[in-house]
Amino acid sequence: MTKTIRPLLAGNWKMNGTRASLDQIKAIADGVKTPLSEKIDTLLCPPATLLYVATALCDDSPLAIGAQDCHQQVSGAHTGDISAEMIADCFGTHVIVGHSERRRNHAESDMLVRAKAQAAHDTGLIAIICIGETAYERNSGQTLDVLKRELIGSVPDGATAATTVIAYEPVWAIGTGVVPTSEDVEEAHAFMRAELIERFGKEGANMRILYGGSVSGANARSLLDIPHVNGVLVGGQSLKAADFLAIYAAFERQFA
Ligand SMILES: O=C[C@H](O)COP(=O)(O)O
């Protein structure tokens, strides 16, 4: 199946990385300076402490830099939070919102995630909105209901293909080394595509839908072959340049 949507390879460093890791960012930034980067987008989301330096390191690279979360308000008395404007001020272009670790560890609701995505849009950032079912929800047959509810609740009404990326991350696949079957990924992505088209029409047809959860250089190719998988959101395997670049290389067959 030929895919026409420009894919995205995104890395999420989570709460990992200090100044000592900047050489990995530099190696990734240099490693994606190949002709393939004319066909695919690459993005790395280091911790907020490294954002500004990371964007400087990527000055002459197609690698974009983004953040892992933003507050829903523009500014104010919100100790420890960062705003979308602060991310943009560091030359970040994307922000992940609604990651399952934030939903779980910070009790973030769909409504809050939607407000964060809206704040990103209002600031000109691309919002990567994460959704996905837990093991319990999957085992009790609720997967598609959860995806529908989270899509409706977390994605702002004005979302477009240019401003919004959906990341499907089954919670049980994150950091476990367990990846759903191709059939399960295909079913979930086809379902999300249909839901997005119903709500957003042409914009929904063109919105990128990433798969995330234990993606590696070894399994990226088969995941990218699945219809409506328009890229991947990578955690652990984005920390080392060699691992990230192995996943980058996996995009060659489908998209070069
Ligand atoms: O944001 C990234 C995901 O949570 C996936 O993490 P992982 O690749 O370590 O499973």
TrEMBL record:
Q: What class of enzyme is it?
A: isomerase
Query: Which SUPFAM superfamilies has this protein been placed in?
Result: Triosephosphate isomerase (TIM)
GO MF terms here are: triose-phosphate isomerase activity
Q: Where does the record say this protein resides?
A: Cytoplasm
Q: Which HAMAP family match?
A: TIM_B
Q: Which family does it belong to?
A: Belongs to the triosephosphate isomerase family.
Q: What is the protein name for this chain? A: Triosephosphate isomerase
